[in-house]
Write a structure and sequence with these properties.
The chain is mostly helical. The chain contains nine helices and two strands; from the N terminus they run E-E-H-H-H-H-H-H-H-H-H. The chain has a domain of 99 residues: Rna Polymerase Sigma Factor, Chain: A (Orthogonal Bundle).
Length: 196
């Protein structure tokens, strides 16, 4: 009752509207936070992996994903316009990784054994080892083909998702995939099975 009456005197309409406006704002912020938490729970690991296999650094990948989530929170209204949340987030992470690489260059590992020994977390060691193995294989391919394989096998995207992410035709994605697999078979680097 104190919202509307104070010492038996009615509160002004202006004050009442301000209280309602603040409550609506608090509810909006709460819903925004819940939506962001749901998105983080659902996509964080894949987005981290996606970033890591582009920049090659555990810490930088974490920073990129965190920055994207902060920007998403600040501009959550853009998310409602996106048809596919996963594609929107992957595109945002991809752009952030491209910006990072453009400014700093891709992380280069001079001595893998020393780098691996410095890491204390088993997840970090596993990520580094996997990154180096995949990066070694993909360095034998043109960048466009390597990116298609990275998206297909590391990030588990289908051809349509890759097409949307890279903003190229699905048939182009499929042909780059096919030529990349053929080159890898010719290099005899790995035995790749056709996952179409």
């Amino acid at each position: 009752m104190f919202l509307f009456f104070s010492k038996n005197k009615p509160i002004s309409v202006h004050l009442r509207l301000n209280v309602v406006k603040r409550l609506k704002s608090m509810i909006f912020e709460f819903n925004k936070m819940r939506q962001l938490e749901r998105i983080i729970d659902e996509h964080q690991q894949q987005l981290f992996s996606f970033a890591f296999f582009r920049v090659g650094s555990y810490e930088v990948a974490q920073d990129i994903v965190q920055d994207v989530f902060i920007k998403l929170y600040e501009n959550i209204q853009h998310l409602s316009a996106a048809n596919n949340v996963k594609a929107y987030l992957l595109k945002t992470i991809s752009n952030a990784c491209t910006d990072y690489i453009r400014k700093n260059g891709k992380i280069q590992f001079v001595d893998v054994e020393n780098v691996a020994n410095e890491l204390t977390d088993e997840d970090e060691k596993r990520c580094l080892s996997e990154f180096l193995r995949i990066d070694d294989i993909l360095n034998n391919l043109p960048a466009e083909q390597a990116e298609i394989l990275r998206l297909k096998f590391v990030d588990s995207l289908n051809f349509v998702e890759i097409s949307e992410l890279l903003d190229v035709n699905v048939n182009t994605v499929k042909s780059r995939y096919k030529y990349a697999i053929e080159k890898l078979r010719n290099f005899d680097l790995i035995n790749v099975y056709n996952y179409e």
